[in-house]
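User: Here's a structure from my thesis project, written as structure tokens. My advisor, Dr. K., wants to see whether a designed sequence matches the one we expressed. Can you design one independently, without my sequence as a hint?
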């Protein structure tokens, strides 16, 4: 029996610290594990050897700073996580292992506003299809990360604003999917998951303070503070789309006037171009035409960038992030939108905060949210089951 403060309990705690560090990062050198955990190099070396002998981690040769090193990651067969991302027009599912390798990924069109029940049924079907296609052991599914395009109430797990998803009022997304899949489900809004995806796999790697701005049907920000997603006590942190830019501006879906969203979201921007470009235009099309030199599309994107820059300047003044990552279709516009954002940040942000900021397009494109869902599932699972060799869950039916 382990007792608090005993040598065996201390050893167990150190094992869990190492496993957690590797699980969250995907892979680390032994020197990086030592820095992350605060353990000595000798202790890390002994623990890694023990975990490798037990089949929990795998070690591969690499280099760091021009020197030979050993990269440590969880074993590829140690467990499975699933990511599910609901967008306004799509459903995307990915399956990954604990070594941060994506084993399968698929997306299909979906009108997420139509019916919550239909959406969750489709998600179950797509998950089941990918499970069969990859042939993974269902008993090794550690959990599911779920992303939805709306704020989640932290205490109740209920989707917050029905103005965003009218057909989802009062729904508890995690419970709905958990009931269909029979495994633990962890839910967050799409902007937070986009931030998590870019932090682990994309343009946010290597930083501890990050804001991920997603511009689509709405506008939101995922905030990372000291390496962790900040949700706020009610789960609504990061609603940058509802910063007021003009008190006499258009009425927003939230009921206020002149919110940032009313100057930047697709539903407000596209009508500006319909008289000259037709009713079938999408934001993806606007970006493509702008890159090809279309003056109207370029002007609209530049205006959107300047408005977004005002919101980013507010974030700089309040939180002083070291990096802002722009996601969504608009990020594909590159400097056509990033340049105007920088211009506004330089004008409205505190100079010291603006100087410290790096602004980058997202590296993951439309995959950011589903990869963030995988990262959420990875971050929420415990380490004890990995160490005890009991990483098994009653195999879900998926029927």
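Assistant: Designed independently from the structure alone:
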């Amino acid at each position: 029996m382990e007792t608090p403060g005993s040598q065996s309990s201390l050893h167990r705690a150190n094992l869990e610290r190492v496993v957690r560090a590797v699980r969250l990062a995907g892979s680390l050198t032994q020197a990086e594990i030592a820095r992350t955990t605060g353990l000595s190099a000798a202790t890390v070396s002994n623990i890694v050897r023990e975990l490798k002998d037990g089949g929990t981690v795998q070690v591969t040769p690499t280099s760091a700073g021009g020197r030979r090193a050993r990269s440590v990651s969880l074993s590829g067969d140690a467990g499975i996580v699933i990511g599910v991302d609901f967008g306004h027009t799509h459903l995307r599912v990915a399956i990954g292992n604990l070594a941060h390798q994506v084993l399968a990924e698929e997306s299909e069109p979906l009108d997420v506003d139509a019916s919550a029940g239909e959406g969750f049924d489709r998600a179950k079907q797509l998950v089941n299809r990918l499970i069969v296609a990859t042939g993974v052991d269902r008993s090794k599914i550690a959990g599911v990360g779920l992303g939805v395009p709306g704020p989640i109430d932290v205490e109740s797990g209920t989707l917050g604003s029905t103005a965003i998803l009218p057909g989802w009022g009062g729904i508890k997304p995690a419970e709905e999917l958990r009931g269909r899949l029979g495994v633990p489900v962890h839910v967050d809004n799409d902007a937070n998951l986009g931030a998590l995806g870019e932090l682990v796999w994309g343009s946010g790697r290597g930083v501890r303070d990050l804001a991920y701005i997603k511009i689509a049907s709405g506008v939101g920000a995922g905030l990372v503070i000291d390496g962790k997603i900040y949700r706020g006590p009610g789960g609504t942190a990061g609603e940058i789309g509802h910063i007021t830019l003009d008190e006499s501006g258009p009425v927003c879906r939230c009921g206020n006037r002149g919110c940032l969203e009313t100057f930047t979201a697709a539903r407000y921007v596209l009508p500006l171009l319909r008289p000259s470009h037709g009713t079938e235009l999408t934001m993806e099309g606007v970006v493509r035409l702008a890159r090809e030199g279309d003056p109207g599309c370029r002007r609209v994107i530049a205006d959107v960038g300047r408005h977004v820059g005002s919101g980013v300047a507010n974030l700089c003044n309040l939180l002083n992030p070291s990096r802002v990552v722009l996601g969504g279709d608009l990020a594909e516009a590159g400097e056509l939108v990033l340049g105007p954002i920088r211009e506004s940040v330089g004008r409205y942000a505190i100079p010291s905060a603006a100087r410290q900021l790096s602004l980058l397009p997202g590296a993951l494109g439309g995959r950011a949210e589903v990869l963030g869902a995988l990262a959420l599932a990875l971050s929420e699972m415990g380490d004890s089951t990995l160490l005890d060799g009991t990483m098994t869950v009653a195999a879900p039916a998926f029927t």
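When you compare it with your expressed construct, this may help: Residues 390-399 have pLDDT under 50 and may be disordered.
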